[in-house]
Design brief:
2 domains, six-stranded mixed sheet, 10 helices, Purple Acid Phosphatase, chain A, domain 2, single chain, alpha/beta, binds zinc ion
């Protein structure tokens, strides 16, 4: 959902009820309407003093607010050096426009309150390629795909943000600012407010489980002033389907240090999920709209979605769920347009994630 929309929704129950009458909104109209999240309907307005005067026996009902956050993995909105143009992310952008890429998941992203992705590669036309195996980049206009896809925030803490040096990273930050996309990672934390709830975001490229890495995360968490604290790690081993001991240890450490949710990526495939101390962890969200490979053999991905309910301002319940996705709307190639899976395919991907998972109750 767009932030402006959620702030609007917080201003009145009447607006929420109007949205409910409309059902799940059409994606094209979603930006201007308040959310249709049925959980919001459970919100009970605190009786005003006038009401209490008229109905002296009415008890003070608890005020509940639920914020639903979706998270996805690697979004590479550009080309690698030496990659062919035909069939590339850039090729699809020029032929089908920015709306092509996230249209298949917009019904989820437009209906939630906040969406977080991993922007794996700078948006810049400047800088020199850093010596490494893969250098990705796309022009600034590719950020329009995030806006049209109702993505609110991206982490830049990954092993591609510096593919075109510091100037490329600075260009990316400025572009995201211009398009109204929150960005965070490494030394930059971010806080956004949705329905009066502050969402705090920490991003870290965590290649080890050293004391320095653990202390850095704990320190950032202790300084972060937010109602929902989310840590996003770029970590793990590429193409490994099971999270390793370092990831598990670091995720749990983040939660022990105050995180309310831990998200991860880098392996380019899905890994397991966990609920630890009542807080959800997704170890690897896999690829999403991923321009780094025109036909990866494993196109399975997911949207990991968590709902945080606050009762009288206190976090009272967290639920989470796996929404199975294919990174391409067609099976024979990558068209960079993720779609929601249904039926047996959805069951297969969910079972695959759960087979790498331990201790995953959806509700805490
Ligand atoms: Zn990576």
């Amino acid at each position: 959902m767009a932030l402006a929309r959620s702030r609007l929704a917080a201003t009145g129950l009447v607006l929420v009820m109007a949205a409910t009458a409309c059902g799940l909104q059409a994606p094209s109209a979603s930006k201007s309407r308040p959310p249709a999240d049925p959980i919001v309907l459970a919100t009970a307005p605190k009786p005003s003093s006038a009401n209490q005067a008229n109905q002296p026996n009415l008890p003070n009902l608890p005020v509940q607010t639920t914020v639903t956050i979706s998270a996805v993995g690697d979004c590479t909105f550009g080309l690698g050096i030496g990659f062919g143009y035909a069939g590339s992310w850039n090729d699809y952008f020029e032929r089908l426009g920015p709306e092509h890429f996230l249209k298949g998941v917009l019904e989820v992203f437009a209906a939630d309150d906040y969406t977080i992705a991993n922007l794996e590669g700078p948006l810049t036309e400047r800088g020199q390629p850093t010596p490494k195996t893969f250098n990705f980049r796309g022009p600034a206009k590719h950020a329009e795909a995030l806006v049209l896809g109702s993505v609110e925030a991206v982490t830049l803490a990954n092993n591609h943000s510096l593919d075109y040096g510091q100037v490329g990273l600075e260009d990316t930050r400025q572009t995201l600012d211009r398009y109204g996309i929150t960005h965070f990672g490494n030394d930059q934390v971010a806080v956004d407010e949705v329905k009066g709830i502050k969402i705090g975001l920490i991003g870290a490229a965590a290649w080890d489980n050293s004391a320095a890495t653990r202390n850095d995360v704990a320190q950032k968490l202790s300084q972060l002033e937010a109602d929902i604290k989310i840590v996003v790690f770029h970590w793990g081993i590429e193409r490994e389907y099971r999270q390793n001991a370092d990831q598990v240890s670091l995720a749990r450490h983040a939660i022990d240090s105050g995180a309310d949710m831990v998200l991860g990526h880098h392996p380019h495939v899905l890994q397991g999920v966990e609920t630890y101390q009542g807080k959800p962890i997704a170890y690897s969200l896999g690829n999403f709209s991923f321009g780094g490979n025109s036909n990866p053999p494993d196109k399975d991905s997911m949207i990991f979605q968590a709902s945080f309910t606050f009762t009288d301002g206190e976090l009272s319940q967290i639920t989470s769920r796996i929404i199975p996705v294919s990174i391409s709307s067609v099976p024979h190639t990558n068209d960079y347009s993720p779609v929601l899976l249904v039926g047996q395919e959805a069951e297969r991907v969910t079972a695959k994630v759960l087979s790498s998972s331990t201790n995953y109750p959806e509700t805490s």
